[in-house]
Amino acid sequence: xxxxxxxxxxxxxxxxxxxxxxxxxxxxxxxxxxxxxxxxxxxxxxxxxxxxxxxxxxxxxxxxxxxxxxxxxxxxxxxxxxxxxxx
Length: 87
Description:
The chain is of the alpha+beta class.
């Protein structure tokens, strides 16, 4: 699999973070704004359970490339309403 085409999802049950490797420009806004969740030196590098949903959404909204997006889940952790940020 081509590493550039990787799309991964990470959830805390309430919100799901979507990361698209091909779009990432490594601005590190995510790491600077929410280092408890975004830890590029560890695997998995995104740990959504380490922060509030509100702070995760706020951090994702600072992503200049659109590599990070999110969607909200329903009470059972399923996709509920698309909240994808288009960049």
